[in-house]
């Protein structure tokens, strides 16, 4: 005997609980404007990320050279994350956001200008990308420290889900747009699109109210930074969330492999690179759209660990797809990143599906990592801890790029994701076992 269909109002309420919670946008117009501006500018930023990787590979035909794009920004982003977090605990966070946004826009505009003039080089791409990443690190740390001042604690997971939706949209539309624009018109128009879309970030920042730090404000300097590091030493749950992210981003970051995958394994060139990059974002966006039910989970430490394990498993399967394709394909691949020929459609489809699963899992872990950081850390320390978090978020993938690029060059293209994904699963199982406070973390009673 089948169960009766629930009344229409109950079905609507259940659907609303499943879909993403829009309450942060309704309750805080300032958050809504900042969120919308970030959504627009993020599309252009992801377009440039993919376009720079494509151009470096086009100039060098080297996956290792592509990995150096991220590595060149590693030290500047570490410094920017740490010192930018200190500044966010000292200065008006709105003004700091505006200053960093101006630097980010100027770096993007310079990349576009050099491309239009035909004067771009691998070195100029490294330097300007590092400058852009440095400014973006300060923006990210400061914006995340602003959010808890605009919203009540109960809405922080929903706000993180909305930010994840922005990331999913950006990494879906931006890379796909990059592949199409680069193939059809070249690199200069792609960079120009980013420079134009970045105006959205300015509009979202300018409309914010003043956001001065609360509590006792210290001077910006080494002592203030060390105070933040010491606080992290007394915050086991925050440390565990950082460790989970480091494991995922260092051992399971496959993006540096995409240009070579599109050129010599899967075929399809730049279009395949766009599809692979966008696939993870599609998964992130879908998980964000359906986040209404799970943003209320209380055991957020367990949620982070399980999500990262799913991510690692999906990355390992992606490595398996590359291995099987490389060993079994009979026809030639594209041979060039700018060629769209030789596409192995079944393999590209399989790779896109598992990368979508990875993107969905990663977004779930991001939602809860950010919720832990924003709710458990006091405002007086929030900028510094967000700065350290941004070092993890931006530095981890760059180390991961080096790991994947070097190992792919030394062994095979498929080896780094296969090995790294399996190791991630084991590392997170050990983290849950050895860190009981993280395993029992309760969102209603947040403890750092």
From TrEMBL:
Transmembrane region(s): 35-57, 63-83, 95-117, 123-146, 158-185, 191-211, 257-286, 307-327, 347-368, 414-434
Places the protein is found: Cell inner membrane
Record keywords, A-Z: Cell membrane, Membrane, Transmembrane, Transmembrane helix, Transport
Residue ranges occupied by any Major facilitator superfamily (MFS) profile domain in the UniProt entry: 193-448
Taxonomy, superkingdom: Bacteria
InterPro entries, alphabetized: MFS_dom (IPR020846), MFS_trans_sf (IPR036259), TM_effector (IPR010290)
Membrane topology: Multi-pass membrane protein
The protein, known as: MFS transporter
């Amino acid at each position: 005997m089948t169960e009766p269909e629930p009344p229409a109002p109950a079905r609507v309420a259940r659907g609303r609980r499943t879909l993403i919670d829009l309450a942060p946008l309704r309750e805080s117009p300032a958050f809504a404007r900042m969120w919308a501006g970030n959504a627009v500018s993020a599309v252009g930023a992801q377009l440039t990320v993919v376009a720079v990787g494509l151009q470096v590979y086009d100039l060098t035909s080297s996956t290792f050279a592509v990995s150096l794009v991220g590595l060149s920004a590693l030290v500047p982003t570490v410094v920017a994350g740490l010192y930018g977090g200190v500044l966010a605990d000292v200065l008006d966070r709105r003004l700091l956001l505006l200053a960093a946004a101006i630097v980010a826009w100027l770096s993007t505009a310079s990349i576009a200008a050099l491309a239009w003039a035909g004067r771009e080089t691998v070195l100029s791409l490294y330097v300007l990308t590092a400058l852009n990443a440095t400014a973006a690190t300060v923006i990210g740390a400061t914006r995340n420290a602003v959010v808890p001042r605009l919203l009540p604690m109960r809405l922080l997971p929903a706000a993180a889900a909305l930010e994840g939706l922005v990331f999913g949209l950006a990494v879906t539309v931006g890379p796909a747009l990059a592949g199409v624009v680069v193939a059809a018109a070249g690199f200069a128009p792609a960079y120009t699109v980013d420079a134009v879309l970045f105006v959205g970030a300015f509009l979202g920042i300018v409309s914010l109210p003043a956001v001065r730090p609360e509590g006792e404000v210290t001077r910006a300097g080494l002592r203030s930074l060390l105070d933040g590091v010491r606080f992290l030493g007394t915050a086991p749950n925050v440390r565990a969330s950082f460790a989970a992210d480091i494991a995922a981003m260092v051992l399971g970051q496959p993006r540096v492999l995409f240009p070579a995958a599109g050129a010599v394994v899967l075929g399809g060139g730049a279009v395949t690179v766009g599809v692979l990059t966008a696939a993870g974002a599609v998964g992130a966006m879908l998980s964000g759209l359906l986040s209404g039910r799970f943003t209320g989970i209380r055991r957020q430490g367990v949620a982070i660990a399980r999500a990262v394990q799913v991510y690692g498993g999906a990355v390992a399967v992606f490595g398996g797809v590359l291995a099987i394709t490389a060993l079994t394909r009979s026809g030639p691949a594209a041979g060039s990143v700018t060629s769209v020929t030789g596409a192995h459609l079944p393999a590209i489809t399989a790779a896109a599906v598992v990368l979508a699963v990875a993107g969905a899992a990663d977004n779930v872990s991001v939602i809860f990592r950010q919720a832990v950081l924003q709710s458990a850390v006091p405002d007086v320390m929030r900028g510094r801890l967000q700065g350290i978090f941004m070092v993890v978020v931006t530095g981890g993938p760059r180390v991961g790029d080096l790991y994947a690029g070097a190992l792919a060059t030394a062994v095979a293209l498929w080896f780094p994701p296969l090995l790294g994904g399996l190791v991630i699963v084991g590392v997170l199982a050990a983290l849950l076992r050895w860190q009981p406070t993280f395993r029992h973390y309760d969102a209603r009673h947040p403890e750092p």
